[in-house]
Amino acid sequence: MEDLTQGAIEALLGGAPPQDFPKPQFQIVNIRKIVTSSNVDRYRLMLSDGHFLMPAMLGAGQTAADDMINAIICLDQYLNNSIKEKRILIVMKMHVHKPSNQIGDRIGNPVNPSAVPTTAPAPASTAAPHSTVGASSNGGSVANGRSGGPTPYSHQQPAQRSMQGDMRVFPIVSLTPYQNRWTIRVRVTQKTTIRTWSNARGEGRVFSCDFLDDSGEIRATAFNAAVDKFYELLEVDKVYYVSKGSLKPARKEFTSIKNDYEMYLNPDTNIEPCMDAGDMPKQKFSFVKFAALAGVANNSLCDIIGVVTSADELSSVTAKSSGNQINKRDLTIADDSGMTVRCTLWQSEAENFDGSGNPIILIKAAKKSDYAGCSMSSSMNSALMINPDIPEAHQLRGWWTSEGQSMQLGTVTTGGIGGGGGAGMPTSYKVLSQIKDENLGFSEKPDYFSTIATIVYLKKDNCLYQACPGDDCKKKVLPDNDGYRCEKCDRVYPDFKYRLLLSLNTSDFTGNQWVTGFNEQAETFLGKTAAELGELKSVEDEFDEVFAGATWKRYDLRCRAKADTYNDETRVRCVCMSATPVDTKATCRRLIDEIQRLERL
To answer: How far from the centroid of its chain's Cα atoms is residue 51's Cα?
Structure first.
């Protein structure tokens, strides 16, 4: 038993803090996999020190396999927690000291403490060289004066307690809605602005923040009176004791935090600053490489980090719900998977962003959309960092400086590459003559490609139509007495909204191609919103000037080609998925890379 920290479990079951047994070594006697409500695998272990058994739960990111049964492990970082008056170890970090094939069978005859008869003598325990089986405050052993299993642990350094002194500090990972009394010690890693809400039940204010400790993260939300009480108190990067919050199942669509529960702060919640924050971890991220974004579900949240390769000018869109103008800025960002993705910042983040010098941008809880194939955006639940001081940012900067800025980068798309490639692959650049020469659009699936072309003509006739004002409906409406009827929604609306459907002829040095631009892309080409063009429609000269000013401009277009048959005539229809001004520097790099590739053939 010399490899096991004998006597440690006896003391830990009695309440000994982890600092009394740094890096203890136990044998795994059983492993059970637990699938949580969020489909994340967690593992429950039964550990032995040769005399007693004690349960343990592996923290997020830790895994175990059946071939580890009987192996001896070392707990590099763990917590001794109490749940419903039962002790359990929360293991954040461990490593295998000796694999099971070097051990053979179970060491000793360990028993569950509850199975020890009250009249049985205490088993002799010989402490391992690096452990002390808890001397009590009067100099005796924990086992002294005891007739059975483990008794409450006594030591000169008690387990950490909250500032109130009546509760032990719990790890975040152990919190459940079934616990009433707990205190956590956490760092605030993110705090949203105060937002107002209004619905059929009333109106109010809300803000959210993210808490972090050694075991994991949790989202906390406060409403109304709790906003007044806690918003100014909670500061990002400060550490606090928190108790008396309520827990409910997490709404995964609003957060990227990997926790089955979220916390609600109420006026009875107690939050106190913690002055000793030196050992608290900093913010955690779960970054998704851009090459893997195609596999991320639409409208879900994930953490991303990339180099800004280009930033568009500040623009604005009209909010569907309120009709207010919202400022936005579109970025193109790249990472070391060799892919780029479009990313949108909103309001103050867009207004204050400076894209000079190719900064590193990090967005925690960015929202993925299938708009223009695949794009990302910040949201009210996101946290934005520019040039963060973390290892991933330094690594990305080194990649960009050494090779990234001279690489031919692909574009993330859910559709695939030209020629019907798989999702997530880069779209290849084509000249316009290749659309016909390579029969793009005639395969079973649409073909996606990128091209650089100049707009030579735009059809202004019938480019505007009166559309349904309902959310997520773009159908044309028809006059109906004093209103406008939408056949899809089966409703009559008092008004309509204008939408664009624009046909434009594009040209490069190889030929011409007609391309269709839907509302968002058409607004990019014309520099006006559909609503603004609707107002100009009756002023013919100004309306014509908008279209005249949009010609002879070059764009980097990403298109989808698919053959359509109409009146027994088959034509390839090209639809613009995204349009950005040409980045001459990036284009030159791409062409140089292509020339060098051809020279190596």
So the answer is: 44
